[in-house]
Write a structure and sequence with these properties.
449 residues; alpha+beta; Aldehyde Oxidoreductase, domain 4; 2 domains; four-stranded mixed β-sheet; 12 strands; 16% strand
């Protein structure tokens, strides 16, 4: 559903389609995607950019298959998940940094998934008609491509620059925007490590197009991996030039170099990752240079009288290549997980005659601190060799897994599947009572005459 105008529809559909097969080996697969024009306002970007929607559907199907086969959802995923050498629907061979099994085991162990699931199953079987509450646990697994899809990074040809000013200051010049993800912290950290100086002597120039080069948009979980990688390479080049000219270490001589020789600027432009090729016409080849991997286990408590769902615990295991800043990376996982809780349980746009009825935060519900579950963040590292620091994206990855885990937990508690998000009290209560559920989300209804 692209709404009335195209905007970002094709690229959102593209990422959603590529991720629709899930992180599982399947030798015979055909995935088709279609964007539809509807009488609703146009849709823009959303954390995950198409992947949360299709991976919710795919993971819910995996859980339903496990139920039909009378297998543990954990055991089924252990059997299906990609290993190194696996081939994706686009024909990409996963040669390195493949960690689906590791995140799956980490999340299952930290949450004591199998033991809690067995206890929950017994409680459901023994629950009487007068029960007022029910608890359940659910599991999901996901992957998320790092950077732009296909040849997107090649077309962008991003540039990141590093400047040694005439007065001896080290300055980063990129277009990457700080929006709470920690760019202004990790960029100086990466550059300082490469130069052998302290992070507090590295500055970041304002993101003003009259000052900085075009390093691409701040999207697609690409900032740390792509732009950060360019800055490291630029720093290594600057360090080599200064040390060659001075004969000393960069840390000891860069100020005297600037005083004697003046300003030095190093521009680093993106070059394709080695061995990564994609055909945009046939949609075959390496859709992404690498993937991030995530598994989540969610526990819920459901009021059987009202259908209200409270997510009490989330364990999210995320493999992100290399952890650059532990606290900021954990914050990304926690923020993405909480946003996914809202996506799963309360966030819904209401439309009448193609117009939003809850178009502001006073009427559109999002999770608050009171709604936040206890979130356990587990960060795993399988560095990607194509990036100088080995880092992959983390911003979108945790958003992909929590919603299907919550829906699996609702099923574990009640025995009913919720197939439309959000799992509002109205939808849950309809499932419990066998009554007609509300209509699908995002569909515009007619105003009563």
């Amino acid at each position: 559903d692209g709404g009335a105008y195209v905007t970002l529809t094709p690229v959102v559909l593209s990422r959603g389609t590529i991720h629709a097969g899930g992180p599982y080996e399947c030798p015979n697969v055909r995935i088709r995607g279609r964007a539809m024009r509807t009488n609703t306002p146009p849709n823009g970007a959303f954390r995950g950019f198409g992947a949360p929607q299709t991976e919710f559907a795919a993971e819910t199907q995996v859980n339903r298959v496990a139920e039909r086969l009378r297998l543990s959802p954990l055991a089924l995923r252990r059997s299906w998940v990609y290993r190194e050498g696996g081939v994706t629907p686009t024909g990409q061979v996963l040669r390195e940094s493949v960690a689906g099994l590791e995140v799956l085991e980490a999340a299952a162990q930290a949450s004591e998934y199998e033991g809690v699931a067995a206890h929950s199953r017994r409680a459901r079987e023994q629950r009487g008609a007068d029960a007022r509450m029910a608890r359940g646990i659910g599991l999901a697994l996901a992957w998320h491509g790092a950077g732009f899809t296909g040849s997107g990074e090649v077309h962008l040809a991003s540039v990141a620059s590093l400047e040694l000013t005439g007065d001896g200051r080290i300055r980063i010049l990129t277009a990457s925007t700080e929006m709470g993800q920690g760019t202004k912290t990790i960029f100086p950290q990466l550059v300082a490590e490469a130069l052998g100086v302290e992070p507090d002597v590295v500055e970041i120039a304002p993101q003003d197009t009259s000052i900085v080069p075009d390093s691409g948009p701040t999207v697609a979980s690409r900032t740390a991996m792509v732009v950060g990688g360019l800055l490291i390479t630029a720093a290594e080049r600057m360090k080599a030039r200064v040390e060659e000219a001075t004969g000393g270490s960069f840390a000891d001589t860069y100020r005297s170099f600037a005083k004697d020789q003046g300003e030095l600027r190093v521009d680093e432009q993106f070059t394709p990752y080695p061995g990564v090729e994609f055909d945009d016409t046939t949609y075959t080849g390496d859709a992404y240079p690498c993937f991030g991997w995530a598994a989540a286990v969610a526990e819920v408590e459901i009021d059987l009288d009202t259908g209200e769902v409270a997510v009490t615990d989330v364990v999210s295991a995320d493999e992100i290549g290399r952890v650059i800043h532990q606290v900021l990376a954990e914050g990304q996982v926690e923020g993405g997980s909480l946003q996914a809780v809202g996506y799963a349980t309360i966030e819904e746009l209401k439309l009448i005659d193609g117009r939003y009825q809850n178009d502001r935060l006073a009427t559109y519900l999002i999770p608050t601190a009171m709604d936040a579950p206890r979130i356990t963040s587990l960060l795993l590292e399988h560095p990607y060799s194509g990036a100088p620091h080995g880092a992959k994206g983390v911003g979108e990855l945790p958003m992909d897994v929590v919603a299907p885990a919550v829906v699996a937990a609702i099923h574990d508690a009640t025995g009913h599947w919720i197939t439309d998000l959000p799992a509002t009290p109205e939808r849950v209560l309809a499932a419990l009572t066998g009554s007609t559920p509300p209509g699908p989300p995002g569909i515009s209804s007619e105003r009563p005459s």
